[in-house]
Structures are given as C-alpha cells and as structure tokens.
Amino acid sequence: MKQKQREKSVHPVKSREAGAAKPQFNRVKKMNEQWMKKRQMKKRRLRIIKQYLLAGIIAVGGILATLVATETGGKSTRKTLSIILITLIVLLASLFAVDLVEEPADTTSNLIEVEQESVRMMRDLLSSRDDERYFVNYAIDGDTIKVEVNDDTRRVRLIGIDAPEKGECYYEEARTALASLVEGERVRLETGSSDVDVYGRWLRYVYVSGDIFVNRYLLRNGYAQTDLDPHNKQYDQDFISAREEAIRQDRGLWSACDDSIETYKQENPGLREIHEPPPSLDCIIKGNISKREYGKTYLTPECGNYDRTKIDTNRGEQYFCTEEEAIAAGFRKAGDCP
Hints:
Blueprint: H1 2-69, H2 75-102, H3 108-128, E1 133-139, E2 144-149, E3 152-158, E4 160-162, H4 171-182, E5 186-196, E6 202-208, E7 212-213, H5 214-220, E8 225-227, H6 236-248, H7 253-256, H8 258-267, E9 285-289, E10 296-299, E11 318-320, H9 323-328, E12 332-333
Parallel strand pairs: 3-6, 10-12
Antiparallel strand pairs: 1-2, 1-5, 2-3, 4-8, 5-6, 6-7, 9-10, 9-11
C-alpha cells in the first residue's frame, strides 16, 4: 500500500514538472528565435555598410593607383600615395576576411562538402605519395628489385644506372650489394618524369634507411655504370660525379672488369691523356666536348677528371683563361668539379 501511495504521489509531481517545463522550453525557444532574428538583421546592416565601404575603397584605390601610375607629383607624394593605396588594399582584404569569418552558420553545409572533398583528395594523395614505404622482397639483379604493393608485387628499375647483366663481369657482386642493402627493408620510391619503362617496370629513385640514395650508392661504389635517361635528368650530374669517383678510386667493376673499362673509355673520349697543351699558363681551363651525355663542359685544375681530359682543337675543344669565357662560349662546369 505504501509503495502504491508513493507511486501515486510521485507521478503527479512528474506530470506537473513536465507541464511546467514545456512552456518554459517554449519561452526559451522563442527567445532564441528573437535573438537569431536580431542577429540576422544586424548582420544584414553590417553587410550593407561593408558594401558601401568596399565601393568607396575601390573607388579611392582606383584614383590613387592612377595617380601613382601616371607619376603625378613628386617622389615623396607618390610614396605617400603608394602607402595609402597599400593601406586600402589591406583594409579591403580585411573586410573580405571578416565576411568569411562571420558567415559560418550560412555556409555550414558547403564547408562540410569542401572538407569531405579535401579529405578524399588527401587520401588519394597519400595513397600515391613518393614517401610511401614499400617492402622489398627480392633483388633481381644489380639495378632491379621487386616490391610488395598491396597483395601483389611490382618490379622496380632504378633510374640512371646500368648494372652488369647475368653472365657479365661483376654481376653477382652488384646483385649481392643491392640485395644486402634493400632486401627485407622498406624503401622510399621517388618518381621521376617517366613512370614506367617499355617492360612495364616502375622507374624510380630508391632510398633506404632514411638517407641512403641507393642509385648513387651503387654508382659510387662501382657496382654499376651510368645509364642516363633524357626523361629523368634531375640527378644526372650527381650520378656522373659518383661514377667518376668510382673510376678514380678503381672501385668495383672499374678495377675488375677490363671489358667494361675499355668500352667505357671508347664511348667517353673525354677520358684520355692530355694531348694539346694550353697556349699559356694563364689559360688552362679545359673546354671539352663529349659525344655522349656530357655535352660541352669546362674543367678547372681542381676537377677530378682534369688530368685525364684531352683537348682536341680540331673537334672544337679549346682552352679558356677564365670561367666567364668558357660560359660565354656555351660551356658549363663539369659535374665532378668542386
């Protein structure tokens, strides 16, 4: 009985509280609506004022710009006009910024759509970004690897280098060097100007352990020669310098493979003993013309290949007294020069 009486005494109270809360809620709702209307009216008035201000600023700015452009008045006058014009431009930009800040309620749906589109674009970008890491499961030879992509594998050809093929001198050493460097590791692949080669392999610059540039490493240590691609040229000079360092130090295939050395020297006539002496001791900068990737380059005595480079004036090569003369003649500094 007592429990039923308590229930009877509680329910009417709840009912009365609910009945009392409803009109209170309606009053709050009405107050909110009135406040919103006042806010909207205030915003409309501010918008009208801003429109007049914008029109005035544009008109005055146009007049000032005309005066500055026609060089009206003295230097100090034009300077003053320019400062005023810049101030008006800043004020104009500020008004536009205020419009953007004060209108979030009217553009919520648009902002949500823009944000969603931005997220989609960022997701697509991240899925194909150059710094994505790929797991290397196999080194095919000294310049080609296999990486895991989702549930598949892709062959990746290292740009700018040419390691010995199977059966050629230094093949095993080159493949072992690349395998020990990247197999079982996650590498970063940088895309050049060309994405794939004729065999469908990805063309990439490869980085491992954060800072080791694999393409350059193989060249510098004599595991590969250069194979410069006219479509991917951003690291050409770096690769040439790395190769020349390996040649000077007799590293890798440059000391082990006579055929590679002889073939390379035949294809690079710039690498031979000095033939024609300079006209004077004041003009010793060598202007060399290569038949391959070098083009027209000049070398100072500090350059790595200076002593090896032959100058043949019958081929258009020459000596220069200053670097400025060489540049004016169409020569550029060689890649192995400091």
